[in-house]
Amino acid sequence: MTTTALKPQSTSRWIAAKTAGMPTQDGAGVSLTRMVGTPQLQDLDPILMLDVIRSDDPKGYIAGFPEHPHRGFETVSYMIHGSMQHRDNHGGTGLITDGGVQWMTAGRGVVHSEMPAQSDGALFGFQLWLNLPASEKMREPWYRDIPAGELAHVSLGDGASAKLIAGEWSGQKGPGPDRAIAPFIADVTLPAYAQVSIPVPAGHAGFIYVFEGAASFGPEGSVRAGELGVLSEGAELSAAGLSKGARFLVIAGKPLKEPIAKYGPFVMNTPDQIRTAIEDYRAGRF
Ligand code: FE
């Protein structure tokens, strides 16, 4: 991660640091790049993790994520291309396909599987972990499938556009649920040299992740495909597509400023609560 020098305070945001993430494996052997949740960038309160799964080779994803638990936070899965099947122990099932989102609030406990619903071709998707405030970590589990057609489409001029998963932009509201951290999650497409101003709420912490082309953010700071840029404090974020244009995610939330105790798929506030989570899971109380 590289950090640029502090700039004078202003209301526009800039790229405070960049990372290319860490290649790793998870589930039963799925190859992925972890962008948030690494030794370099442990978390970005209230964002706990961002994984990118992108493989043209079924060997990279076919093993999937067989049955495993979660407690204390939310997972948001966004599929750019491909299909995954979700099943959980609360009777929920859902197929997430091209352009679709699944929002799962683990709360007090979910045991689920996330398996590829394809045996060949490319798969490209994201999984984001959002923290829950202490008061909601043991809430009832919840989930919703959001097909591509239900995302809010924002036209931004110059051929630029955004698909809004959560938050508000130009009078449109994303279909994501209302949460304490007021998540802002957008997938932005910028043609070459198009410029937009992105209304990241003031006080939110967040980042951009570029996955096609390159764009320049704030007063300076270009970010290329495969790189994550941590946003400075501020409000609006200006972005301009470079010569090939760009497509990127903007993800931000209101910091919780609470202690984090994290152990694999359990994210609580204290080590004691982690011990309880492990006991509850082993005893079948999820
Ligand atoms: Fe999971």
Structure description:
This protein is mostly beta strands and 286 residues long. The chain has one domain (2-282): Jelly Rolls (Sandwich). The protein is built from 1 helix and 25 strands. Strands 1, 2, 14, 15, 18, 19, 20, 21, 22 and 23 form a 10-stranded antiparallel β-sheet that branches. The longest helix has 12 residues, at 271-282. The mean pLDDT is 95. It binds fe (iii) ion. Fe (iii) ion (FE) binds at residues 65, 68, 70, 75, 112, 114.
SSE diagram, text form:
Blueprint: E1 2-3, E2 15-19, E3 22-26, E4 30-36, E5 47-55, E6 65-70, E7 73-81, E8 84-88, E9 93-96, E10 101-105, E11 110-116, E12 123-131, E13 142-146, E14 152-157, E15 160-166, E16 168-169, E17 172-173, E18 184-190, E19 195-198, E20 205-217, E21 222-224, E22 228-231, E23 237-253, E24 261-263, E25 266-268, H1 271-282
Antiparallel strand pairs: 1-2, 2-22, 3-4, 4-5, 5-12, 6-11, 7-10, 7-12, 8-9, 8-11, 10-13, 14-15, 15-18, 16-17, 18-23, 19-23, 20-21, 20-22, 20-23, 24-25
Bound molecules: fe (iii) ion.
Structural class: mainly beta
Shape: globular
Rg, Å, rounded = 18 Å
CATH superfamily: Jelly Rolls
What small ligands are held by the chains? fe (iii) ion
CATH topology title:
Jelly Rolls
Q: How would you state the average pLDDT, rounded?
A: 95
Secondary structure tally: strands: 25
Q: Indicate the low-confidence ranges by residue numbers.
A: none
Major β-sheet profile: 10 strands, antiparallel
Which percent band covers the strand fraction?
over 45%
